[in-house]
Amino acid sequence: MAGRTEEAYVGWIRRFILANDKRHPLTLGSHAVEAFLTGLAVHGNVAAATQNQALAALLFLYREVLGKSLPWMDEIRRAKKPQRLPTVLSREETMQLL
Considering the entire predicted model, what is its pTM? Predict the structure, then answer.
């Protein structure tokens, strides 16, 4: 794992533990993960990519570090990706650029 990824994961795991009153992650389960990630989307107003990074960090914690598999969490409210329209230049604008 890359160093920057590791730093980001440690940060998300720390935030998760602090959000759950410093309880050990083994005493928590998928409901706590769902609540944390939903809170990020609803109250934290984070981008979809940020929420996905937090999810990846917590899945890594449970699967690789703690050896515990979490059932898929269907109740997570996902952060919405912004709707962006592509910017298209007209023929005239393209000719001006060239």
Answer: 0.72
* Residue type, position 29, single letter: G
Please state the φ and ψ torsions of residue 81, each to the nearest 5 degrees: -75, 135
Cα(64)–Cα(96) distance, integer angstroms: 55
Is 74's pLDDT higher than 60? no
In contact, 26 and 66? CB cutoff 8 Å: yes
Query: Cα(67)–Cα(38) distance, rounded to whole angstroms?
Result: 24
SS3 for 22? coil
Tokens of 6: 């590791």
Cite the DSSP H helix spans in the chain. Answer: 3-19, 30-42, 48-60, 91-97
Cα–chain center distance at 24: 20
Give the number of C-alpha atoms closer than 13 A to the C-alpha of residue 6, restricted to the C-beta side. Answer: 5
Domains (ranges, CATH) in the chain?
A: 3-65 (1.10.150.130)
